[in-house]
Amino acid sequence: MSTEPTETKSSIGVTLSGSPETGQHVTISDDKALEIIFGTKHPEIANGLMRHCFKVLKASETSDDYPGNDERSFMLAAVAEIKPRDTFERMLVVQMAATHVAMIRSGGWLLHTDNLDQVQAHYSG
User: Fold this and answer.
1) Closest Cα to residue 83, out of 43, 45, 37, 47?
2) What is the pLDDT of residues 62-120, one digit of tens each?
3) What is the DSSP string of the chain?
4) CA–CA dist 105, 58 (Å, integer)
5) 75 Cβ contact list (under 8 Å, min separation 6)
6) Does residue 70 contact residue 8 with C-beta atoms inside 8 Å?
7) Is residue 49 predicted with pLDDT exceeding 90?
8) How far apart are CA 100 and CA 27, in angstroms?
9) Confidence of residue 123 (pLDDT cuts 50, 70, 90)
10) The dihedral formed by the CA atoms of 13, 26, 102 and 94, expressed in degrees to the nearest 10
11) Cα-only R_g, the chain
């Protein structure tokens, strides 16, 4: 595992690094990048929605130590691509991106099952 933080480069004006243990480090190359991504003029809304994007991810999906699992940039880029236009769309697009990541994660678990008992083991709570 890496001890030095690496940065996940992004074409949307945000560079991400860190982990749940060390904290998330967000470097914004354009002071309005988050407002543009989330389609709002309120930095408080943009910052809150960015935190919500990261809260739903597993630790390995928000850590420089697992670059193959890192979903931080995907979450922000998905929101930017959808271009939410109002408060309802902003919240829904974060939920949509989170649901997508969860479904892909779930599909990965199912890929490694051979029978119903194994499937149920992944989804029992």
Assistant:
1) 37
2) 999 998 889 999 999 999 999 999 999 999 999 999 999 999 988 887 887 887 777 77
3) --SS---B--TTSEEEEEETTTEEEEEESSTTHHHHHHT-S-HHHHHHHHHHHHHTS-GGGG-TT-TTT--HHHHHHHHHHH---SHHHHHHHHHHHHHHHHHHHHHHHHHT--SHHHHHHHH--
4) 10
5) 53, 54, 57, 94, 97, 98, 101
6) yes
7) yes
8) 25
9) low
10) -60
11) 16
Nearest to 112 by CA among 99, 121, 100: 121
SS3 17: strand
How many Cβ atoms are within 10 Å of 26's Cβ, its own excluded? 18
| pTM (two decimals) | 0.78
> Which structure tokens are listed for 6?
């690496």
SS3 state at 25: strand
Q: Which long-range contacts (CB under 8 A, 24 or more apart) does 83-87 make?
A: 83/39, 84/38, 84/39, 85/39, 86/39, 87/40, 87/45
d(CA 35, CA 13): 11
